[in-house]
Each structure stands twice: as structure tokens, then as C-alpha cells.
Design the sequence.
């Protein structure tokens, strides 16, 4: 009996593993490889096509329909976030916020699609989140999470002259 080394050696963080297990998802080679794409670039967001290209470049041949389903399942269980890229008319995926006590807003650059978690968000943001979830509950719905994103252009993508003329957000 010979042992084969796995093609992708991805260490899945404990909180991610818990979410996968709770959703009934196994840690298959495809799952580990896809998670590896996101763990390698935590601020990045990618489309299905970009994920397919990256996996193929690594020598992993995952059927495109299987990849679609896997990305959707990872989003459904809270490991990934799925959001619309209005300019390209497609879905982009990124690592989900694992914060359990409300919402952690994020800023997404529309030019490079990097995401920045706004860890400075305080108690008022959490209060708004709680109020939205309470409102849904009063209507008979079960809200699972609130995603808050702000879109714009990051300082790395702004021309130097524009970066110096921006006014800070109030």
C-alpha cells in the first residue's frame, strides 16, 4: 500500500471546519482546494471563472458545475460571502466574516475588488443589525446574518492627485 501526498495541503481554520461540519459538508480535495484560494488571499474576491482558472493552473480539474455548487454551498454555510459584481454582471465570492456578535462592515474597491473589513465599526452598527433581525423576526422571518458593504475606490487604485483631495467620511 502506497501513501499519496495530497495535491493541496490546506489547513482549514477551526471555526471554518465547524461551519462545514454543521452544514454537512465534507473536507474533500475540491473543498480544501477552493478554500485554499480564499485563505491565500483573505482580502480578495473572485468570480467562478477566476476560481476555475486558478484551480486549473494548480493542476486540479474540477467540473465547472461542481465548482458552482461548491461555491454556493460554502456561501450558504457562512464560510464564503457571495455578492454581485454589477459591472461584470456576475457573482464574486470572498471569505465571510466569522464575527459572531453582529455585523462587521466591509469596504470593497470596485477597481481591484479587494475587500477591507472595517474593524473600527462600533456598538451603533451592532445595534442596527440587531434591530433589523428583530424586525424580521416580528414578521415571522428568520434572519441569519446581515451583510453590510460600502463600495468605492481604495487608496491603492486612486490616482495620486485624487487620493489627496478626498474628504474623510463622517
Sequence:
Amino acid at each position: 500500500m502506497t501513501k499519496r501526498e495530497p495535491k493541496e495541503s490546506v489547513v482549514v481554520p477551526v471555526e471554518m471546519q465547524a461551519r462545514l461540519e454543521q452544514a454537512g459538508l465534507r473536507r474533500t480535495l475540491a473543498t480544501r482546494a477552493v478554500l485554499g484560494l480564499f485563505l491565500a488571499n483573505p482580502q480578495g474576491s473572485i468570480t467562478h471563472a477566476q476560481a476555475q482558472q486558478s484551480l486549473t493552473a494548480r493542476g486540479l480539474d474540477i467540473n465547472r458545475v461542481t465548482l458552482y455548487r461548491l461555491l454556493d454551498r460554502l456561501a450558504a454555510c457562512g464560510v464564503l460571502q457571495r455578492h454581485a459584481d454589477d459591472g461584470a454582471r456576475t457573482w464574486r465570492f470572498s471569505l465571510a466574516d466569522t464575527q459572531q456578535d453582529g455585523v462587521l462592515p466591509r469596504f470593497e474597491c470596485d477597481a481591484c475588488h479587494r475587500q477591507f473589513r472595517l474593524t473600527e465599526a462600533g456598538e451603533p452598527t451592532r445595534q442596527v443589525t440587531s434591530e433589523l433581525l428583530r424586525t424580521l423576526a416580528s414578521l415571522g422571518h428568520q434572519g441569519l446574518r446581515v451583510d453590510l458593504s460600502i463600495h468605492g475606490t481604495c487608496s491603492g487604485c486612486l490616482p495620486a492627485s485624487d487620493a489627496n483631495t478626498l474628504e474623510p467620511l463622517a
